[in-house]
Design goal:
single chain; alpha/beta; Rossmann fold; 9-stranded mixed sheet; 11 strands; binds S-adenosylmethionine
């Protein structure tokens, strides 16, 4: 299967199964995450996938389709929004959208609980952080997963809403973690409309070339590296037109 066919299969699954789920996850990030996961598998990187901030599972259920045998997907969320319990909807969506179900775990807690009860993974090849959006929350979540389960080689951390004007604390937390915190070897390699993709500096060239396959990128300098920036979401193809003649 060519890379184009591979991405297109994931986009089809997104359009048919994931897109109807309430939440925040777009086609651009489907392509980026699928390409990253494929490249990891091709270079022998094995590990779990972690999502901090699941909401109703839109990204979580997509990620479930990227698991290889023996890997786990672990999601963490308080699963309550403005007093409403999210779990009934999460369970209903799981019926149609969760793949590799026996490998998936959801933990209901505030992320602060991870201080005393570490994540049940010491090695996560993909980590998606999308819980609290204020500086201190983001710094805590990033520092916690980095310490508990980010591998020495081949892992990727994806920060949601890092490019969104309404949440300036996300960028400040990321750069504080890189510039003055323990994450001094993390570098961004891709920015989509919503998300910033980070890896260790030694993996930077590799992952940048992996996501360059998406095309339509600008190249910008951030810290001491160049980063690919995508300005547009991948558009859903228009349905074939039908002309009614009679
Ligand atoms: C933007 S939503 C996540 C969207 C989701 N990733 C998706 O694909 O649709 C943020 C989620 O983070 C959770 N959250 C926010 N702060 C949290 C915290 N401190 N601990 C646990 N969950 C938190 C909220 O309950 C909410 O479900």
């Amino acid at each position: 299967m060519s890379t184009e066919q591979f991405v297109s299969a994931h986009l089809d699954r997104y359009d048919n199964v994931i897109e109807p789920i309430d939440g925040w996850f777009e086609r651009d990030n489907v392509a980026a995450m699928a390409l990253i996961s494929k490249a990891q598998k091709e270079s022998g990187v094995v590990g779990d996938i972690v999502e901090i901030g699941v909401y109703k599972g839109k990204t979580f259920f997509f990620l479930s389709g990227l698991l290889a045998s023996g890997e786990r997907l672990i999601g963490v969320d308080q699963f309550t929004m403005r007093g409403k319990d999210l779990l009934p909807e999460v369970k209903a969506y799981a019926e149609t959208a969760c793949e590799n179900r026996s490998q998936c775990t959801l933990l209901k807690c505030f992320t602060k609980a991870l201080r005393d009860h570490p994540l049940p993974s010491a090695n996560a090849r993909i980590i998606h952080i999308d819980a609290g959006h204020e500086h201190d929350d983001v710094y805590f979540d990033l520092a916690t997963v980095y310490r508990q389960c980010f591998p020495d080689h081949g892992g990727v951390i994806i920060m949601d809403d890092a490019m969104i004007q309404g949440f300036p604390g996300i960028q400040s937390a990321i750069y504080q973690f890189i510039l003055t915190g323990p994450g001094n070897d993390l570098r961004p390699f891709l920015m989509t409309r919503g998300k910033m993709y980070l890896c260790r500096a030694k993996d930077h060239h590799h992952f940048k070339s992996v996501v360059a396959e998406m095309g339509e990128v600008s190249v910008r300098n951030v810290l001491d590296v160049s980063v690919l920036v995508r300005h547009h979401n991948i558009r859903k193809p228009e349905p074939e037109p039908i002309e009614i003649l009679l």
